[in-house]
Design a protein that fits this description.
five-stranded parallel sheet; 5 strands; globular
């Protein structure tokens, strides 16, 4: 299968407890800057990045604050998917998440990969 060099799926498994989430979001924003169609698939503790107020709890200098990284990502057309079982396991519902986050299973991510999207995992 030939990669579709216009798409990137970034899987993030770390949340507000890890600087890895800041790195992942910085790279996802870089993908948008490079002209890629970028989607994030959040699992495990990464769900807390899109919980209302959660993204304000971490920042890794010298990177931008997570809240700004997420806002920039969404404003520039990035798509954020949240794993349904991971959302439910934390007792969250759609109303607990920031606007624009789509609670969706891995099928959407798999469809992007099947169409040739490159992938990164953090």
């Amino acid at each position: 299968m030939q990669a579709n060099t216009e798409k990137l799926v970034v899987v993030i498994t770390k949340g507000i407890e890890s600087e890895i989430s800041s790195v992942a979001l910085t790279i996802a924003n870089g993908g948008l800057t490079a002209g890629l169609k970028v989607s994030l698939f959040l699992t495990s503790t990464a769900i807390d990045l899109v919980r209302r107020g959660g993204q304000r709890l971490t920042q890794v200098a010298p990177l931008e604050p997570v809240v700004e990284l997420i806002e920039s990502f969404q404003k520039r057309g990035g798509v954020i998917w949240a794993c349904p079982p991971c959302v439910k396991a934390r007792g969250y519902e759609q109303s607990d998440l920031i606007e624009g986050v789509i609670i969706a299973g891995a099928g959407l991510m798999h469809a992007e990969i099947k169409s040739g999207a490159a992938t990164l995992s953090f």
